Amino acid sequence: MNDQRKNQLKREISTISNITLKAQEAYLIVSYLQKDEDDADLNYQKKLRSFFYYSRIIYWQITIIEIAKLLNEKEKFSVSRIIKKVKPDGEYSELKVSMELIGKWEEKLALEKESIKNIKDQRDKVYAHEDGSDDIKNLIPLSKIEFFLNLFKEIILELEKPLGLPHKMFDLINSPATNLKYIIKMSAKGTKYEQEAYRELTKQYSLEI
To answer: Which pLDDT tens digit goes with each residue over 142-152?
Structure first.
């Protein structure tokens, strides 16, 4: 593979990596905000504070929009296109990716046709248009999003190896989701302190109900 084609493939993989990372970080925020907590104070912050409620909706939209880019065969940087390009008769056949591996990726995608259609419908009918329909009755579970993210990462890491690209780090140390957990924890702690201070004040002035 000459340098020009090699650099072109590197750019394509880099774009797919960036889309995957953006989708992953949005998904992790949604997953955390969706999760029920044993701590009632944390649950209050996550479920009843309007900022976090709308954050969950917005980051779900981002997750769907970004993942749809990689699952829609018509998109320039879809995983289906990159898989075709690395086949023995493809544009990047020199990469010599095993047909066994390619077959495994294609089988995984083929088995998820309904989930892929659901994601495309959400993106096309709801989130891509202000006047779009909101009639998406069966949203796919978060586990399906995680499945696709893991598949994307597997493809990226396998294609990086023969190109000598540095290992892509998808586990961010200072991720937005980690920061969000800290913010909600401190917000719950602050709310609890304020409530306790208020109770003490009502006791002091004999205002308890």
So the answer is: 999 999 999 99
Return the residue matching tokens 């992953």.
24
Token pair of 185 as six digits: 């924890």
Instruction: Identify whether the C-beta of residue 2 lies closer than 8 Å to the C-beta of residue 149.
Output: no
Find the helix packing angle between 3-34 and 50-71, rounded to 10°.
150
Separation of alpha carbons 67 and 142, rounded Å: 12
Q: Give the residue from 131, 137, 21, 136 showing the smallest Cα distance to 69.
A: 21
* Residues 53, 197: Cα–Cα separation, whole Å: 27
Q: Are 25 and 175 in contact (CB under 8 A)?
A: yes
Do the Cβ atoms of 125 and 135 come closer than 8 Å?
yes
Length of the chain: 209
CA-closest candidate to residue 77, choices 14, 148, 21, 166:
14
Token pair listed for 73: 């065969």
Q: Distance between CA 7 and CA 48 in Å, rounded?
A: 49
Listed as ranges, residues in the chain with pLDDT below 50 are 133-137, 198, 201
Contacts with 138 (C-beta within 8 Å, 6 or more apart), sequence order? 118
Q: Which residue type, as a one-letter code, is found at position 166?
A: P
Query: Is there a contact between 83 and 102 (Cβ–Cβ < 8 Å)?
Result: yes
| pLDDT tens digits, 34-70 | 888 888 888 888 887 888 888 998 999 999 999 999 9
Confirm if 105 and 155 have CB atoms less than 8 A apart: yes
